[in-house]
Design goal:
Elements lengths: L1 H22 L4 H5 L14 H4 L5 H12 L4 E6 L2 E6 L2 H10 L27 H11 L5 H28 L2 E3 H18 L12 H10 L3 H9 L1 H6 L7 H20 L7 H10 L23 H32 L1 H18 L4 H6 L1 H13 L5 E5 L4 E2 L6 E2 L4 E5 H5 L18 H6 L18 H16 L2 E5 L23 E6 L2
Bound molecules: protoporphyrin IX containing FE.
Length: 508
């Protein structure tokens, strides 16, 4: 009897929840008269994301393909409405023209529970603006030029570690090698430590770097689309071990440099300047110490959070980009020969690998851009509406708090923008072809005031890795690697599911 009553109560409760969700909570877009994708109780439209049936990039790619003609359309992430924007003019409005109405991403950020989440990607409003202004001088070409020697050294170490493998013509998993190379670069420049990952593939730096990127689909989706839930319950997003490891390394090395008056030309030095003075010394101009910028010094934890985000934002993205370049070049030997010819000529002209030499390699730049087009490491962009506005040329009224998603993978593989989109063709980035396209159809680094702050560094890091390898080795596709790749469903960054295996042999 009791059991029967209980079952009845549960059934009635479920019917009430279902009806309330379907007809009240999921009524938002219908009421607003905006085209939307029919949701399902209780996950809205993101059921396949939560169960890792598709990756985030593929999920929004599929939506783009089906509904792009609506220019903007509604979906639900759980019960929360989310506006997906596919039209390049509307994208420009959100990212740039109406930036004041969309200046935040709405990502998880809780400095009390998770101090390392107080970084540039996640911060919002004035805090973000102040920090962005402070960090911008960190990424000038002058500053990157000063760090070039570190990148070059890592490139050389990568080559010497692969020399013996190349002699036997063996296969390598190239993403792992670029991951080790990127970890050594960012550990050295932002944390002031030689992590030796190129030599020791499985050390603690690699371990914690990988742990940071271990995907837990449910928590990742929750933190990206409904971070309020984590903040409300004071649930930390970052693994405790990751926070401890990166904070301690940063803290120890800052102390060491300060105690021994060590000055190196790297990110860590610039972050120390932000802690001690509140600003980064410009490359050539003397700064007035009493100027208003000399306030708001960064605390140690705030600075550590920035070093951490340089790692988090720069390590996977740059190594993925270099990996996909080699994956495509291994399939098209004529393109590989062409890029090698450019590399050889420019290295010969400069006598060695220099910052200027790398920047003269225009074909290399096109190859990297084509890789970023076909495989954008960050496949979507996010914004939150920070002040209500009607999207120009539409009757879509966007209220404060509305989440916006921009499906980059969809745009960059749209055949009406990039004909034959699966073809890897660097000539798409010839000047005339770029000029003929809408500028908001190539967005691997985002756009507007919140564009990637590290894009210049990301390019140089990728180029040094590729030039170092391609000047010495030839790459071919190993049969173990599929064409096309199978995308890893669990990874937010666009990545190949089972890695990318190439055979490597000496060039000369
Ligand atoms: C190929 C390499 C890279 C790619 C494809 C990439 C991509 C992106 C994208 C798509 C965004 C979001 C932009 C937006 O919302 O409009 C972003 C933001 C950011 N990236 Fe990168 N990134 C790369 C390398 C780097 C590197 C090397 C660093 C640092 C050393 C870095 C640091 C950041 C930071 C701090 C932000 C947040 C900027 C802000 O909100 O003000 N990125 N990146």
């Amino acid at each position: 009897m009791v059991l029967a009553e209980l079952i009845t109560i549960v059934i009635v409760a479920l019917i009430i929840i279902y009806t309330y969700s379907k007809y009240i909570l999921f009524n938002y877009w219908r009421k607003k008269n905006v085209f939307y994708v029919e949701p399902v109780v209780p996950t809205g439209n993101i059921g396949s994301l939560l169960t890792s049936k598709v990756s985030v990039g593929e999920f929004f790619y599929d939506l783009y393909v089906k509904y792009k003609d609506h220019r903007a359309f509604g979906i639900y992430t759980f019960f929360k409405p989310n506006l997906v924007i596919t039209d390049p003019d509307l994208i420009r409005a959100v990212l740039t023209k109406e930036f004041k109405n969309f200046h935040d991403r709405g990502f998880f950020c809780n400095e009390k529970v998770d101090p390392l989440t107080g970084h540039l990607i996640a911060l919002s409003g004035k805090k973000w603006r102040n920090l962005r202004v402070k960090l911008t001088p960190t990424f000038t070409s002058g500053k990157i030029k000063q760090m070039f020697a570190i990148l070059k050294l890592c490139g050389e170490e990568l080559v010497s570690s692969l020399e013996s493998v190349a002699q036997t013509g063996d296969r390598i998993e190239i993403k792992d090698w670029f991951g080790r190379y990127s970890t050594d670069i960012i550990m050295s420049t932002a944390f002031g430590v030689k992590s030796n990952c190129i030599e020791e593939g499985d050390n603690k730096f690699r371990y914690w770097g990988k742990t940071m990127f271990e995907e837990h689909p449910f928590w990742s989706v929750l933190s990206a689309f409904m971070p309020q839930v984590l903040v409300f319950f004071s649930i930390p997003f970052l693994d405790r071990g990751v926070t401890k490891f990166f904070t301690q390394i940063f803290q120890n090395n800052v102390k060491y440099r300060q105690t021994h008056n060590i000055v190196k030309y790297d990110f860590m030095n610039l972050l120390i300047q932000l802690m001690e003075k509140g600003y980064v010394e410009p490359d050539d101009v003397d700064i007035d110490e009493s100027s208003p910028t000399n306030i708001n010094k960064l605390t140690l934890l705030e600075a550590a959070a920035q070093a951490f985000v340089f790692f988090a934002a720069g390590f996977e993205t740059a190594s993925t980009t270099a990996t996909f370049c080699l994956y495509e070049l291994a399939q098209q030997q004529d393109l590989q020969d062409k890029i090698c010819k450019e590399i050889d000529e420019i290295l010969k002209k400069h006598g060695e690998l220099t910052y200027n030499a790398v920047n003269e390699m225009t074909y290399l730049h096109k190859v990297i851009n084509e890789s970023l087009r076909k495989y954008p490491p960050v496949p979507i962009l996010n914004r939150i509406c920070t002040e209500e506005v009607t999207l120009p040329t539409t009757n879509i009224h966007v209220p404060k708090g509305m989440a916006i998603t921009i499906p980059i993978l969809g745009l960059q593989r749209d055949p009406s923008i990039y004909p034959d989109p699966d073809k890897f063709d660097p000539e798409r980035f010839n000047e005339d072809k770029v000029a003929a396209r809408h500028p908001y159809t190539f967005l691997p680094f985002g756009e507007g005031p919140r564009i990637c702050i590290g894009s210049r560094f990301g390019y140089v890091q990728t180029k040094v890795g590729l030039v170092s390898l391609l000047s010495r080795f030839k790459f071919k596709l190993d049969p173990r690697t599929t064409v096309p790749i199978i995308i890893d469903k669990k990874s937010f960054v666009l990545a190949a599911k089972d890695g990318i295996y190439l055979t490597i042999e000496p060039r000369k």
